[in-house]
Every structure is written in structure tokens, then in C-alpha cells.
Amino acid sequence: GQKITRFWPSARICDHGRPDDVQQCMKLLRDFHNRSIHVPFRYDILEKNLIFLNLMTQPSRYPDHDEVQTRCYDMAPILEAYQHTSVLSHCDTVADNFLFINENGTLDLRLIDWEYAGECDPCVDLGMFANDADYDIHFDCIDMACPKTIKENTK
User: Fold this and answer.
1) CA 127 to chain centre
2) Which of its termini does the chain have fewer beta carbons within 10 Å around, N or C?
3) Is there a contact between 114 and 136 (Cβ–Cβ < 8 Å)?
């Protein structure tokens, strides 16, 4: 693939510990998802997980990896039964991909690195963000967008 970049000397990444940063990132995601853009390619999180597992050359450094893996696959039928809206989603919403750029006195927020983007439930973006930040599952950014039925089944 090709990588086209532009250097912004004033750029900084999202700080998960700053509520204002988190709110702005969640607003950007919500506004993007609300555009309801549809594409012919899907992002299947369980399928991608299997690809990454096959690439692993060493055991996970996380002691609960196998347990979490099992819980994720156990949730698959619950998620399949949930009637969600699929829209174009970023699918890699880690802090490093949210750039706050100060140009000419104006602060702008950009979402970069769209390599994994595809059509899926927009809650995937929220989950990726929360996971990257090591937030608890019931963190406010999840409450802002995920349906109650999904949250109840994660307890």
C-alpha cells in the first residue's frame, strides 16, 4: 500500500486522561458515524482477531489473554442477534490516530490511519478507543453511544 503523510509540527495526540480530549474525540466519531457512509467492504472484528492471532510468534504478555479471547467469542451470538446499524468505521481508534493540530491559532482534530476502516457497528470504534485507554467497560465514552442491550450483556 501507499502511505501519504503530511507533517504537522504543532500536532499532539489525544490524551485519554484529559476529559476535554476524550469529549472532542467522541464528538468527532459520533459526527462521522452519523453521516451513515456505506462502503462495499466490511470489518469483521472476530475475523481480524484470528488473522492477528495467526501472526503472533510468542504467547501474549497478558495473563488473562485466553480468558478474554474466550469471552469475546462467547459474545458473538449476542452481538449477531443485536440488530445494529453498520456504517463506515475507522476500526483503529487508538490515541495516536487522533491528532490535535494547532494551525494559525485554530485547533483542529484529525483522525488519521484509515488502514483498517470498513463497514461495521460503530461501537467497534468506541470499544477500540476504550481498550487503548485501558478504560473500564462502563466508561462514559461507551455510555454515549452503545445501546443499552449491548451494555447489559457485557456485565
Assistant:
1) 5
2) N
3) no
Would you say 92 and 59 are in contact if contact means Cβ atoms under 8 Å apart?
no
3 state DSSP class of 131: helix
- Report CA dihedral (55, 44, 19, 62) to the nearest 10 degrees: -30
Calpha distance 18→14 (Å, rounded): 8
Single pTM value for the model: 0.80
Residues 8-25 pLDDT 10s: 888 999 999 898 999 999
Residue pLDDT, tens place only, 126-147: 889 988 888 765 555 555 545 4
Minimal CA–CA distance to 92: which of 150, 37, 34, 52? 52
Using CA atoms, how far apart are residues 54 and 52, in angstroms rounded to an integer? 5
Instruction: Give the cell for residue 107.
Output: 485547533
DSSP 29-56: HHHHHTT----S-B--HHHHHHHHHHH-
Beta carbons within 10 angstroms of residue 28's beta carbon:
17
Cell of 104: 494559525
